[in-house]
Design goal:
Blueprint lengths: L7 E6 L4 H10 L3 H9 L1 E6 L9 H7 L3 H4 L5 E3 L6 E3 L11 H7 L4 E4 L12 E5 L11 E3 L2 H9 L16 H26 L6 E6 L1 H13 L8 H7 L2 H20 L3 E6 L2 E4 L7 H7 L11 H14 L2 H16 L18 E4 L5 E6 L14 H15 L2 E2 L7 E6 L15 E5 L17 E6 L3 E6 L6 E4 L2 E6 L6 E2 L4 E2 H11 L13 H4 L5
Parallel strand pairs: 1-8, 1-9, 2-20, 2-21, 5-6, 5-8
Antiparallel strand pairs: 2-19, 3-4, 6-7, 9-19, 10-18, 11-12, 12-15, 13-16, 14-15, 16-17
Helix pairs in contact: 1-2, 3-15, 7-8, 7-10, 8-10
Length: 527
Amino acid sequence: MTANPAKVVVLGVDAASPALLEQWAADGALPVLHSLAKRGLTAQIGGLDGFFVGATWPTLSTGVGPGTHGIHYLTQLEPGTYAYRRMADGALGARSPFWARLGRAGRRVAVMDVPLSVLEPGLNGVQVVEWGAHDAVYGFEAWPTSLRDEILATVGPHPLGPSCDGARPSVADVAAFVDRLVRGVDAKTRLTRSVLAQGGWDLLVQVFTEAHCAGHQCWHLHDPAHPAHDAGVAEAVGDPLLTVLGAIDEAIGAIVDDAGDAFVLVLTAHGMSHSHGSQLLLPEILGRLGLSAPLMPPSRSVVGNATSAAWHRLPPALRARLGSVRARVTREGGASPLPSLGVDPAASRCFVVGNGQAVGGIRLNLVGREPAGLVERGDEELELVDELSRELLALRDERTGRPAVRRVVRSAALYDGPMLDHLPDVLVEWNDELPIGSAGLRDGYGARVRLTSPQVGVVEALNHWGRSGEHRPGGLLIAAGGGIRGGRLAREVALVDLAPTLAGLLGISLTGLDGEPVAEIVTAAPA
C-alpha cells in the first residue's frame, strides 16, 4: 500500500459496453468490478442527447456541453469556411479540463491517457497523453517533458502502437492483436502503479483505451449474431472482449489495492455494440433529393487509403515509436489528407459532415454563415429541416422493411452555447436493430446496405469500414470508498456531472459548469 495514497482515483474503461461489464461482473468473470459494485454505488451515465461521439470525453473533461466546448468529431468544419480542420490544430474547445483547474487551485494531479485531451504544460503534477490510445490525435506527449523519455525507458512504447485499426484475417493475426492489447494493459498498470507510488496525489486518472480497440475490432468474434462472426476463429482465440476486459479488471484490482483508502471511481463514458452502416449512404441520399450537388471523389482519397494501409503494415513497435511523429506530420498537413466537402457548395443547400457512424451530421448552407450560403435563417431554414426529416424518416431498410432512421433533430433543439455553430445543424440517428458486415471481414458477408423510399428510390453500397463494433450512448459509473453508501442510484448521472463531482470530493467548487455534483458521492467526503 502506498504510504501517502491519492485521495481520488479514477479509472476509465474506454468504450466498454455497460451491459457486458455488469453481466460479467455479476457472473464472476470480472471479480474486481463485482467487489467494487457490491460495496459501492453504481449508476448509469446518460449519453449525450443526439450522441456526438467525439464530444463524449471533452464533455466529461470540461464539465460543459457540446454547445459550449464546440467539439463533436476528430475533424470538423471551421465555421465561416468549407474547410475541415483537425481537433489537434487548436485548443480543445473553449474550456479547460477540470484537472487543469484543480491544479490551479492547488491540487496535485496525475492524468494519464484520457482520450481526446491535449497536453497542459505547467500542470501541477504529471500528464501523459496518448501513450496508449485508440486513435492518436496529438501523439505521445507528457508533462513534465522529461517524463516521456522516462516512460519509454522504463515501460517502453505501447505494444499495439498509436492506432488499433487494421486487417487481421487469420487466427494468428487476431491472437497477436489481443495479446498486444493485454500486454498494453499490463504495461499501463505498471506505469500507473509507479506514478501512484510517488504519493501525495490529490487526484489520479488513468483510462484503459484497450477496451475501445477490442470493441471496435473484435465485436464480430464476441457476438454470434454478427454477419462477420467466424465461429472457428472465435473458438481458437476465445472472446477477445472478455479477455481484454478481464485483464483490465485485474489491473483495476492491483491499482485499487495500492490506492489504500482513496475514493475509487470506475467508469465507462459511452458504450459499444454491433456496427451498423446506413451512414455511408447519406451523401447519395441528399444528392437524390436534390439538396446536395456531389463532386467526383478526389483522387487524394486513394492516396490516403494507400498511406493508411502502408502504416498498418509496419511492425507495432515501430508504429508506437513513430506515433507522435506521424501525429505531428498529420497536424502539419503532410500526411493523411483532411476530408473534403465532397459537394459543390454553390449548388448545395446542405451537405454531410463527419460525425461518426452511429449518428449522421448535416450542415445547412446558411446565408451569412457559409461563404456561398443559399438558405436564409428563419422560415426557410426550418422548412429545409422539415423536408430533411420527412424524407429521411421515409427511408426503409430492405432487410426488415422497417424505418432506417429513428430520429432527425436539430442540434439547436438539444443544446445552446457560444460554440453551437461548430456542431452539425441536423443529426440523423440511424436505426441499429441489425448489424452490418464489412467487405474486409468473412468475405464481405452481410456488408451490402440497401435503403429505399418513394422519393429517393433504392440506394445501396458495400460497407468497407473494417470495424465490427460501433459506439452507443450511455455509460456506467461505480464509486466506492469513504462513506459512499452501496446500492444503485435510481437516476442517471450526466456526463457534465462528473467534473464537479470529482472536484467536490477534493473540496473544490468549480464555477461555470453545466452539471452538478452527485450528492450521494460528494457528501461521503470529509469536510
